[in-house]
Structure formats: C-alpha cells, structure tokens
Design brief:
Blueprint lengths: L4 H4 L4 H9 L6 H7 L4 H21 L6 H6 L10 H4 L9 H14 L33 H7 L12 H7 L1 E7 L10 E9 L8 E7 L2 E7 L8 E3 L3 E7 L5 E9 L2 E7 L2 E4 L1 E7 L7 E7 L5 E5 L4 E7 L21 H7 L8 E7 L4 E6 L2 E5 L9 E2 L5 E6 L7 E2 L5 E4 L21 H11 L6 H9 L6 H9 L6 H11 L10 H22 L2 H8 L6 H9 L1 H5 L3 H24 L13 E4 L8 E5 L10 E3 L6 E4 L2 E6 L7 E4 L16 H5 L4 E2 L4 H6 L11
Helix pairs in contact: 2-8, 7-16, 13-14, 14-19, 15-16, 15-19
Length: 700
C-alpha cells in the first residue's frame, strides 16, 4: 500500500512512492464484479476476521507476535479494498527481458536477440519502428523493482522480485480414471515460489459452510482456496506466461517535461501528489506521474525521454489469484470453465479433475491485443500512439482441453499452443524439460497411484544434463584436473540428488561458467556481459549450439564448442574443489546447495538443509549461483485422490505458522526436505479424529 515509512522510517519513502505508482486506481465496482457476486462480501468478512484478531491482540498484548514488538508497531486494521488494490505480488513476465533484449540489440545489433531466449512459436524479434534501443537506460526498471520488491528489514533478507518472476513456475497434472489403479482421477500440483523466506507462500485450510466445503491452499492475503478441491472438483494451477507488461518510451517536450508526444501532439503527464507519513519524521510529499499507458518509472532529463510501464494491473479483475472465487463452487467442467472466464492475473493454466471422471485444463489471463507494426511485446515500444493495446482476447479464445486422448494432461509452464494457433499469448516460455520428464514418468505408469504422483514430484533427473553431458564425454585432456572433471561428468546420469558428486560439478559448471563462457564466445564483450547477468539462462540455446555448432560458432564450430567446454570445465572443478575438498569422491551436491527459510527480521531462520534438484528437474530448485542457497522451490505440494479425498497427501514447508513461538513454525521442514507428505484430510470424521487444537470463535 506504500505505507512502510509510517512504520520503518525515512529510508523506505522511495519504496513507498514506487508501490503507490502501481496500486489499482480504477473503478471499484467493476473491480469487485470481476471476481463474482460474493467477492466484496468475502473480502469484507476476510478483513473483519483479521481485524477481530488484531482487536483480540489489543486485549491480550502478551500474544502479539514478536516481530511487532521488535518493530515497536501495533498491527493496523485491514480494509476490504486492501485485498484487491495491491497488484505487485502477482508474477510479472517479460519486462526484464524487454530491457535486456534492447540493451543487447543496442550493443551488438538486431541479431543479438537470438542469444537471449528461444521463442515459441518460431519468431524473430524485430525492433519496432521509432525505437532507439540505445535510449533504454540500464536502470530503467529500478523504480519498478522497488515497487515489486518484498519488504527488507534491517538485518533481514528479502527475495528479489526479478529473480522470482524469471524463475517462478509450477508443475501440475491430472490423470484420468483409465490410467489409474483405482479408476478415480488423480490431480497433483506443486507451485514453485520463493523458498528462502518465512512464512510459507501458501496457507493450508479447510473452509466449511452451508453449500461450501473447500480443502487446499490459498494465498495468505486472499480469502478462499485457489489450489485444492471442493468435494466434487479438484483444481491446481501453473503459471501461463502471458505477456501482460510492456515498457513504453516517450519523447518529452524539450521545453516542458510535463508533456509527452502522442499522435502528433503534446499530451500532459497526469500528476498525483501524495503525502507519505514517516515514522520519527514529518510527512513527506511525493509526486507520481502517469501517461495514458501507465505509471512513469523513469525520466531521462538530458535525453528528453520518459519511460512508463503498461500492465494489466491497471485493469479491473487483475488482483492475483482472487479470480479463484469464481470457480470454487463449480460441480462440473462446464461450470469450472465458465468460472474462469473473468480470470485476470496472473496468466494461469488451471488443471482440472472431478468425481465424474473428467479431467482437463483451462488457460486464462488478460491477453492484450497488440496493434502496430512488429509489435510483439519483446522490445520496448514508442509511446507516441503507433503501438497500442486494443482490448484483450477473451479467455475462451485460449486453447484448453477436456478429457484429452492421452488420458492425462500435464503442465510445467511449457509452450503448449497448438501449431498455427491464432492467439499467441507470449513468445517466451519456460523450457520444456520438466514437462518432458513428467510425460515420461506418467506414461511409464499406466496404473498410477497417488504414491506414484508423489514420486514424480520428487524426481531429480535433469534432461538438460542428459543432453549436455555427452559432449563432455567425447572429450579428453592432458591437464590432470580437466581430465578428472571429464571423468566425473562422464559418469553422470543426470540425477541431481543430494548425494551426487557429479551434480556438484555439473551445476557449478553450467550456472557459473558455461553460460557466461558461451555468451562471451558468441557476442561482443559488452553484449555478452548483459547476457551473462540475466537470470535463468536459456540452456536450450546452448544445447542447440552444441548440436549444430557451425550454425552458431561458424566454420569449425565443433572445435570452438569443444574449446569452450575445455576452457570452462576446469574453472568449475577448481571452484568446487575449493569448497568441498580436493577429492571428488567426497563431493555431494547437497554439500553445496541448501535450503534456508529466512525470517524477515533476520532470525530465527529454518535451515540450512541440504537440497537436491535444479531448475530443469521436476523437483525444482533455482539456486543463487554465488551462495548456492535455494531461491525458488516447491514448498507446497499436493496429490489428490479425486473421490477418496482422505487418501490425498500434501506438504507445506517449513510449517503452517509464521509465529516463531509456534510448534508449527518449522515442524514440516524435515518431512519436506526428505520428500515426505502428510494426509490431506477433509471428511469431518477424519478431521475430528486427528484434531490437535480446537479454537471456538464467539461473536461479540
């Protein structure tokens, strides 16, 4: 809400200003209507529940969570609109890639774009007419980054939003009754979100009321259950990477920077002045600027340029995941699909199964209709009127499936548009390797069980590794350390388990040395530096260049490829030896990569815990290449037996509670780290039988 300074002091003023730029400022009636007829009432009751607890804490100050005592702050009441006005916790998609692509094109020409990310369907990014890529400053998104950043307290650690946006994903699948041992569908889901902070990003709950019985996980800031079941229908989700953001570049009037050029005329910047309360100081006033396309995030006074972010967050119905209120009462696929028609953000694949035996998926999210020559959302565009959004495609225009012929459906943020499909929601997708491995494992188990889905979620075989390692295996070297590295990787089966010695070398090699070396082999120094600094490298491009070396490296490309491997592999070997010792036989991937859930104020943390997997494995782990701490992972997982609901399983790490005094603050961490789960009970009899604590709420 842009109110951190009121509690934490003047050093948070600029983050507050940035946050206020991206608050929803539109029609609240249209906003509430977007989430269904119960939305405003649900948000009101949700806020009242929070406020009731805050009032109870006022009467029982000894129960106030310790963080508030540390900060000297009494928690404030919520308003219903607080639930929907904040947009910046939603997943953003390609904004950072637009800027990186513009910088690379500036430094190395239009062809440099091919080295950044693979595009699907096949496509070549073109520089929009009127855009000078060199006009885009390297720090153009600094205000946007502040607006979308988590709160970082003194002595605390926060996840960077750009890392989260670039690496967040999910796995989900629905297996039809013809492929299961019981004849009932199975639905599994494991969202991939921040795995380095407390509390967990999902909250498990059961909501029972007349006509409603929901079990599963929701977002702590939202009412309802987004992932789970209602006793008839089961639902999971993965991120559908719809391109919902664009960077606009404006020419300012050199004589008056309060105006920008639009369709041949000077149009005034809309200015809003807001007063920001500041703890320990006088309130400060900050000016917010907006163009017709969105909030201004940078002005280059010298170049007479302004830059604004256009995003679906300004549209009604784009509060993250609140659209789940529209499908929580569905009883069949038709009702579920109808409930998804107004889903706005983030772009999502909703995976479906029900007790009738139906499975399927429904994609949804506001998908801009871009108009203008070569306007594909891959580069910034001039804001002079040549490049516009002409409304949005209806969610019904996106290609879903109902009872697919394969007998199952799986989603892993992969490119899933049918060939020639007319609506292209995005060109930049997550790589296909998790989806390919999921398909392999499901197809290998025709009589699938819930336990089989749990095993799939634990799988740590990297199909990136199985394609890269053969190129290493074919080489030899007279250098002793390089020869040891080749020998170690030659025996690597691609399974990035905690105990794997080859995985320790392989992961260090590809993330710290191979991709950077590849970039600097193919691009001029400055452009390669930009590419090397991007998050989540596209290893499908590296694999393609190794497979077709002349097309990438030029004449004698195979020799250049082999030199790249032999130059970078010993660097990784020496790096790992410096951390784990000189004897590779004693190396362990879990000796490097670890999970640690950091308390926002610095302690108490949970971990460190040795961790396996990588970003290409079904059991995912995106780690920071300098610290090896897991940044993104699957902290919440579920596998539902659709119809025998009490046979379902789940996990939520490191625990249900965010209160360090609670026994449930960290009690699930070890179970999660070992790949375990607990029964996700929903029948009243089983819940009562396993009851731990009963809290009775009495209206006053």
């Amino acid at each position: 809400m842009g109110q951190l300074s009121e509690v934490l002091g003047p050093s948070y003023v600029e983050q507050d200003r940035a946050a206020r730029l991206f608050l929803y400022r539109g029609d609240m009636r249209a906003e509430w209507a977007s989430y269904g007829p119960e939305a405003k009432l649900a948000a009101t009751r949700f806020a009242e529940g929070i406020n009731g607890y805050i009032d109870w804490l006022g009467r029982h100050p000894e129960s106030v969570p310790p963080e508030f005592r540390t900060l000297g702050y009494q928690p404030a009441h919520w308003r219903p609109e607080d639930v929907v006005r904040i947009r910046t916790h939603a997943i953003g998609e390609n904004l950072m890639w637009e800027v990186a692509r513009a910088r690379m094109v500036c430094l190395a020409g239009a062809g440099a774009s091919r080295y950044l990310r693979s595009l699907h369907p096949d496509h070549v990014a073109k520089v929009p007419t009127g855009l000078d890529p060199c006009s885009v400053p390297a720090d153009v998104l600094s205000v946007y980054d502040k607006a979308t950043a988590a709160v970082t307290f003194p002595k605390g650690v926060g996840t960077q939003k750009d890392i989260a946006d670039a690496t967040s994903g999910s796995n989900s699948w629905a297996i039809g009754p013809g492929r299961t041992a019981t004849g009932r569908p199975i639905l599994a889901n494991d969202p991939h979100r921040g795995a380095d902070a407390l509390p967990s990003g999902r909250y498990l709950a059961q909501l029972s009321a007349p006509g409603l019985n929901l079990t599963g996980a929701g977002e702590p800031w939202n009412p309802g259950i987004a992932i789970g079941h209602n006793g008839t229908v089961a639902f999971g989700l993965t991120n559908l990477p719809i391109d919902q953001t664009d960077l606009y570049v404006y020419d300012l009037d050199p004589a008056d920077h309060s105006r920008y050029r639009y369709r041949g005329r000077w149009e005034p910047i809309t200015k809003v002045t807001e007063t920001i309360p500041v703890h320990g100081s006088a309130p400060v006033r900050r000016e917010l600027g907006f163009t017709r396309h969105g909030p201004i995030v940078k002005i280059d006074e010298k170049a007479h340029k302004a830059f604004a972010v256009r995003t679906v967050w300004t549209e009604p119905g784009s509060s993250a995941y609140l659209g789940s209120l529209n499908y929580q009462r569905a009883r069949n696929f038709g009702q579920f699909t109808a409930g998804m028609r107004k889903w706005g953000a983030p772009g999502s694949n909703l995976v479906y199964a029900d007790t009738h035996g139906d499975i399927g998926y429904v994609p949804a999210g506001l998908t801009p209709r871009r108009t203008g020559a070569d306007y594909d959302g891959l580069l910034p565009v001039p804001g002079d009127g040549r490049y516009e959004w002409d409304g949005f495609h209806a969610n019904s225009e996106l290609p879903g499936q109902h009872n697919p012929p394969a007998g199952y459906f799986a989603s892993a943020n992969d490119y899933n548009l049918p060939p020639g499909y007319p609506v292209v929601s995005n060109y930049e997708w997550q790589l296909p390797y998790r989806k390919q491995r999921i398909d392999e494992l499901i197809e290998a188990k025709p009589g699938a069980t819930v336990a089989d889905s749990l095993a799939v979620q634990r799988d740590e075989k990297s199909l990136v590794a199985t394609q890269l390692v053969p190129f290493v295996r074919a080489l030899s070297s007279a250098d002793p350390d390089t020869a040891k590295a080749i020998a170690l990787l030659s025996g690597f089966d691609g399974v990035a388990s905690v105990e794997s010695a080859p995985a320790a070398l392989y992961e260090t090699w590809i993330m710290k040395y191979l991709h950077s070396g590849w970039a600097h082999t193919l691009l001029p120094q400055d452009a390669a530096d930009v590419l090397s600094q991007t998050i989540n490298p596209d290893f499908s491009l590296v694999i393609d260049s190794f497979t077709h070396p002349d097309a990438w490296f030029g004449k004698d490309g195979a020799a250049a490829r082999d030199k790249l491997i032999l130059d970078t592999l010993p660097l990784a070997f020496h790096d790992v030896a410096g951390k784990l010792g000189e004897d590779p036989a004693k190396w362990r991937w879990g000796g490097l990569q670890y999970a640690q859930f950091n308390h926002p104020l610095g302690s108490p943390n949970v971990g460190p815990t040795p961790m396996g997997g990588d970003y290409a494995t079904i059991h995912p782990s995106f780690f920071h290449p300098l610290t090896y701490q897991q940044v993104i992972g699957a902290t919440f997982k579920m596998a539902l037996d659709v119809g025998d609901w009490d046979a379902s399983r789940a996990i939520n790490a490191p625990g249900q509670s965010g209160d360090p005094r609670s026994p449930h603050y960290r009690d699930l961490n070890d179970l999660w780290a070992s790949g375990g789960s607990f029964p996700l009970l929903s029948s009243r009899a089983e819940v009562e039988r396993h009851l731990d604590t009963r809290i009775r709420l009495v209206p006053r």
